[in-house]
Design a protein that fits this description.
By secondary structure, the chain is an all-alpha fold. The chain has helices at 16-45, 51-79, 84-93.
């Protein structure tokens, strides 16, 4: 006879490593593209002395992308059944997110998980 998990538990369909890789693909890589893309545009198409303006704009846009996408990635990963504590541990270790309680972590644009609302 097979042991079935209780009906209120989600059976994981994804492991933490896969979740972290997907997080870097949808969060970190676009952040780098935004940052370096705007610096490149500033250097190549505008006066080379104004690259710092494009660095600042790139930083603001990249942080906005990170702050918008990170909580959405977390919700999606949690729906896949990934352990939240392990996910946070590895996401911090790989530089995907800030540790809980840090000032920068609080800049995420929080969203409610409609599926897990009571």
């Amino acid at each position: 006879m097979e042991d079935k998990p209780p009906s209120n538990q989600i059976e994981p369909s994804m492991n933490v490593g896969t979740a972290i890789i997907i997080g870097h693909i949808v969060v970190s890589i676009p952040v780098l593209i935004i940052m370096f893309g705007l610096i490149f545009v500033g250097i190549v198409f505008f006066h080379k002395m104004n690259w710092f303006i494009f660095l600042f704009i790139g930083f603001v846009l990249a942080w906005t992308w990170w702050a918008f996408m990170t909580p959405r990635w977390r919700i999606w990963v949690h729906r896949q059944g990934v352990n939240p504590e392990q996910l946070q541990k590895w996401a911090v270790m790989t530089g995907l997110v800030w540790p809980n309680g840090w000032i920068f972590e609080k800049t995420e644009f929080k969203v409610e998980d409609e599926e897990n609302k009571s």
